[in-house]
Amino acid sequence: VQSQIVDYNPDNPNLPVNSPNAHYSISVEALKVIQSYKTKNWKKKVQKFKMNIEKYQTTSQLERENKLISVKTKSGLKLKLSPGDHNLLQAAVVEKFTCYFATNSELLYLGDTAKKDLFIEKEKLLLLNIPMDKHSKLPDVVLYDLTKNWIYLIEVVTSHGPMNVKRVFELRQMFNGCKAGLIFVTAFQNFIEFKKYTLDLAWDTEVWIEEFPEHMIHFNGDKFLGPR
């Protein structure tokens, strides 16, 4: 891709990196050069192609940066996420969910479909006795409220991965040594996506829907938002 020989998702550049439809295709420019092999224009076309690579790389870099999703944390830190619905929803969690339901929280972890550990406060996670070895599988977003000693474990769902019984069990095991209260949250873009997973959601978890950011759905009977 960097050498302009192939294009990544040329017919749909906005596909997220984790899309099953992601693909590569030989570039039009490279194809023209290859088709000229063993002709009198071969060396000339190769030379011209090589001269254009630097210009192409600069243009491609600018295009990639323009497609990145900007997200600003409560502390004022600005991060860039790769394109895609999953990361758009993650940005909404950081910027909107925290305003309504985790006002005193700080961001400890934020993944990215292209870079798993885009943002991670390793020292703070270790102080909370949260293991950070290579086998750790943190949820998409982790927030911590120091005043209440609550940890929000948030899975962002656009295609898979809600807070089901299995996932909650895994996270409880992973956070077994942590003394903070655990809150399990599944975030959806809209009610249509939420309804697809209603049978999978575990009891004693919370649901937040970006379409109605000021509301929560509580999958429990004894209390509202809070650790169990």
How are the elements arranged and paired?
Blueprint: E1 6-8, E2 24-26, H1 28-35, H2 42-67, E3 69-72, E4 78-81, H3 85-101, E5 105-110, E6 119-120, H4 122-127, E7 141-145, E8 150-156, H5 165-174, E9 181-188, H6 191-196, E10 205-209, E11 216-219
How would you characterize the overall build of this protein?
The protein is of the alpha+beta class and 228 residues long. The protein is built from 6 helices and 11 strands. Strands 6-5-7-8-9-10-11 form a 7-stranded mixed beta sheet. Strands 1-2 form a two-stranded antiparallel sheet. The longest helix has 26 residues, at 42-67. The protein starts with 5 loop residues before the first strand and ends in a 9-residue tail after the last strand.
Q: Output mean pLDDT.
A: 87
- Please summarize the sheet with the most strands: 7 strands, mixed
- Percent of residues in beta strands? 15-25%
Find the count of extended strands (DSSP E, 2+ residues). Answer: 11
If strands are numbered along the chain, what order do they take across the biggest sheet?
A: 6-5-7-8-9-10-11
Number of H/I helices:
6
Structural class: alpha+beta
Report how far the terminal alpha carbons are from each other: 49 Å
Question: Which percent range fits the helix content?
Answer: 25-40%
Oligomer: single chain
Unreliable stretches: none
**Shape call:** elongated
Tell me the series of helices and strands, N- to C-terminal.
EEHHEEHEEHEEHEHEE
Radius of gyration: 22 Å
